Amino acid sequence: MKLVSGCIFAFFLAWLAHGAGLAAIVGAFAAGVLLNDFFDKEMEGQSLRELLSPVESLVVPLFFVWIGIQVKLETLVNRNTLIVGLVLTAVAILGKVASGLVCPKRMNRLAVGLGMVPRGEVGLIFAGIGKSLGVIDDGLFSAVVFLVLVTTILAPPALRWRLLGGSAG
């Protein structure tokens, strides 16, 4: 019952967000924030996160299949798309690393910046929405997918390097 009520609430807030002209993910995210405390503190037994784990195991791979189907390989290997993808990736990495510099000096600022580098599912969701609305074309969509792939692959080894052997800062 907890799972069903949590999903209904999330779908309802996603529907409200969509009706307000926002992406449905905004409402679903809000539902998660609101439900987290309720399910973890007010109800006994399994948390909503634990209950949703099997659903996540089914839905997440389907999401990535949906994104992958939308990528046109010919645009992904296009010179202009690669240049845009590389520029977006460089700006994303530099922006995240630079944002880590505003952390207090007692923190590992470079590690914070590197930890923010991955630009994953939410970027893909908004790129998918933009593509479905016709706001972005196949080339830009492929560049965003390139950005997500590269930052997702590069971030863990960069963070490992920073935490295990990089210089202080």
Kindly describe this structure:
By secondary structure, this protein is an all-alpha fold. The protein folds into two domains: 2-58, no CATH class; 71-164, no CATH class. Helices cover 78% and strands 0% of the residues. It is built from eight helices and no strands. The protein has helices at 2-19, 24-42, 48-70, 73-76, 79-99, 109-115, 121-133, 138-164. Helix 6 runs antiparallel to helix 8.
The percent range for strand residues is under 5%
Q: Using only CA atoms, what is the Rg? A: 19 Å
Compute the number of strand runs: 0
**Please, what is the oligomeric state?**
single chain
The structural class is mainly alpha
Write down the overall geometry.
globular
Count of runs of 4 or more consecutive helical residues: 8
Number of domains: 2
Please give the share of residues in helix: over 70%
Through-space gap between termini = 49 Å
Main sheet attributes: strand count, strand direction, barrel closure: none
What is shown here, in short?
78% of the residues lie in helices and 0% in strands. The chain has helices at 2-19, 24-42, 48-70, 73-76, 79-99, 109-115, 121-133, 138-164.
Write the layout of secondary structure elements.
Blueprint: H1 2-19, H2 24-42, H3 48-70, H4 73-76, H5 79-99, H6 109-115, H7 121-133, H8 138-164
Could you name the key traits of this structure?
169 residues; 8 helices; mainly alpha
